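Reopening this one. Same input as before:
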Amino acid sequence: MHNVEHSHGGKEIATKEWLAQFNMRLPIDSSEIPDFKHWVNFNGFSPQQTGHNGYDFAAYLTQKGEVVLGLPVETNIRAVADGIVYGIYGRDGWGYANELWIKHEKKYGGLTSGYCHIVPTIEEGKEVRKGDIIATPWKDSGSEDKGPLVHLHFMMQTDWQTTPIDPRFIDKSIYAYNMIPPENPRLTIPELPTRTPFRVEHFKKVDVGTENDKFFQSKKRIR
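Same output, byte for byte:
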């Protein structure tokens, strides 16, 4: 993130943007996920094409070469940079579970990061440092039959949600493997071998909100 000073009518105006060279981190430490090898882009940043203004940490490739859909419920979600927790909101009627927002320090341009579909482990108004645990993923405990995919929807934005920014600026490798089409059971992952197996965690069927194909089946499948 960067402040660029411009002069306009005798006043200094700060233009705020995220920059890749700043010392930030991803919101999840992949080394804490058993058998993790690499993130798979389940539904990435595409605000103009699909209206999706963040990146879903929802799928990953294991050391055994299997794609897993759904995070472990004990996964720690961490602050990507220093800042203050300035908002924790429930999303009844839109989305599900909670969202948490961090306003980052002046050295980061005062920008914000958002963490959705989570269970907060910190209170509003608390200062955080990069890497501090702030939440865990939310899981519907009411049913083992079907439920929302356990994942983190992560956003980076300019002040007060005015301009979304692609999280690839933290680590572009999160797009090394890509589900096509996004969040759809009829998926392909061009970067992986054709017969790569995948499985769904937590539920027998997972609702991902797609219009045509609403549920992933949890039994092991070969794509």
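So the earlier flakiness isn't reproducible anymore. For the record, Confidence is low (pLDDT under 50) at residues 1-15.
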